[in-house]
Specification:
Length: about 375
């Protein structure tokens, strides 16, 4: 077992062709992962012959790793090569601070499913029509270190934003659907919610969504809503250079504020911490949080996520943004973020804005 090298490229591509009839990794993909900072490509070799490989993705800014692909030479199967590769991938993930491993496997691949379940992977769900040949995929996960106390979990469907500016509506729809099973997230509703809650402008391009606007949109649809933030200043204008844009955003802020006051929608100007998140989740509320994506993608952009749970080590998020070509929706669901990292991630901008929108079926839970 060793790390793959550029000289393995031809053998890796040939092995991929022999092992898979569809959803194959290309030569270009292998080359990308050979030098990737957030991936690990390991190979099994005997007598100069490549017998298998395992590809691991390390989700940036998280405690999550993903087995992207695992392949063993057909003539070499039955020698525990796949199991050894998997163990090496797990050890590498642990050495890089990851505590969860996730993967997907075709429902008709009994041998692979057996391997993963023997190695401690448990079923999380099912993806329909996942592969190019229209096969369904099982979603599996393993906790790589000793079990810890499990605190509240919000069961919520995951929805991926369909535009680069609609993370707020996507997170809001997930929260609404968690509280009301009759609500089905879709693009029509996503854009409708964006129009109701947009800041119009942002640092560049179209505006994101304002917490007051998101809370008002939820209240119009029958949910109790409250906003918690640590600043009374107009939001998001620090990074905007144009005075005209700032003026528009300040007017939008003031209008939303007046609408909240007219609707008697609570706005709490105070600091809050993880203990508040725990209390909200324990009451059955759904919690949207504003974060900075810098630790995840290197961009200092405001981004809305849904908090789905927490334990003594991590905060778990549904992130509506599938950020890269190598990510899948599985990578964005119940995403584990170390508490210390989340504390920094949830403070946006130079003013360290911290903001949450709390939704519930009754005002008492907000």
């Amino acid at each position: 077992m060793r790390s793959a090298e550029p000289g393995d490229l031809q053998a890796l591509t040939a092995l991929e062709q022999r092992c898979f009839a569809s959803d194959r990794l290309s030569r270009r993909s292998f080359r990308h992962h050979l030098r990737g900072r957030h991936s690990a490509l390991l190979v099994a070799e005997q007598g100069g012959q490549l017998l298998g490989y395992g590809l691991l993705l390390l989700l940036r800014g998280t405690r999550l790793a993903r087995v992207y692909s695992l392949a063993v030479e057909p003539q070499a199967r039955g020698q525990a090569i796949g199991e050894q590769l998997l163990k090496q991938l797990e050890e590498h993930a642990l050495s890089r601070g990851r505590v969860f491993m996730r993967l997907e496997v075709a429902v008709n691949n009994a041998a692979a499913i057996g391997l993963y379940e023997r190695c401690g992977y448990r079923r999380l769900g099912l993806y329909s029509d996942y592969y190019q040949d229209h096969q369904d995929a099982l979603r599996l996960q393993k906790l790589l270190r000793a079990p810890r106390e499990q605190l509240p979990v919000q069961e919520a469907p995951w929805y991926g934003q369909t535009t680069h500016f609609s993370c707020g509506p996507a997170a809001l729809m997930m929260a609404m659907a968690a509280l009301d099973a009759s609500i089905e997230p879709n693009q029509t509703l996503e854009l409708e919610l964006w129009r109701e809650s947009t800041t119009i402008f942002m640092t560049s391009g179209l505006g994101g969504t304002h917490p007051f606007g998101l809370a008002l949109a939820a209240a119009r649809r029958g949910l109790a809503a409250a906003v918690y933030l640590n600043s009374e200043q107009p939001l998001f204008i620090d990074g905007v250079r144009s005075d005209d844009k700032k003026q528009v955003m300040m007017l939008v802020h003031q209008t939303f504020l007046q609408q909240c006051q007219q609707a008697v929608l609570p706005i709490h100007y105070r600091e809050f911490d993880d203990s508040a998140l725990q209390q909200w989740l324990q009451r059955g509320s759904a919690v949207l949080m504003l974060i900075s994506t810098y630790r995840m993608d290197g961009k200092k952009a405001p981004h809305w996520v849904l908090v789905t749970g927490l334990d003594q080590h991590c905060i778990y998020l549904h992130d509506p943004d599938v950020e890269s070509d190598w990510q899948q929706p599985i990578d964005c669901q119940h995403l584990p973020i170390a508490r210390a990292d989340f504390d920094k991630m949830s403070q946006f901008g130079a003013a360290r804005l911290r903001c949450a929108v709390v939704l519930a079926n009754s005002a008492a839970s907000c």
